[in-house]
Specification:
Layout: H1 13-29, H2 31-63, H3 68-87
């Protein structure tokens, strides 16, 4: 079986290229490392979402509980938070 290769899609910037190369090495090396990376990334995003909700949206919603836009954003972020919590 020939070695697997990572084919890159559209990349922007040197940082994106290095990130893609790192992920390719992980994919080709060890699935446990890849899973650890995925869980760490999910935890990071979960923390960002929770901080945005508690630090920005919740105070806004408290000031104007009838603001449909804020309620809509909260609803969508809650739906993002649940699966991230399962992964992390």
């Amino acid at each position: 079986m020939p070695p697997r290769r990572c084919e890159g899609g559209r990349r922007r910037g040197e940082a994106a290229r290095r990130h893609a190369e790192c992920i390719c090495r992980i994919l080709l090396a060890d699935s446990d490392q890849l899973e650890s990376y995925e869980v760490a990334s999910a935890r990071e995003k979960l923390t960002e979402v929770r901080r945005f909700i508690t630090g920005t949206l919740a105070p806004h919603a408290a000031l104007d509980p009838d603001d449909k836009r804020v309620q809509h954003i909260l609803t969508h972020l809650d739906s993002v938070e649940a699966p991230l919590d399962l992964i992390a």
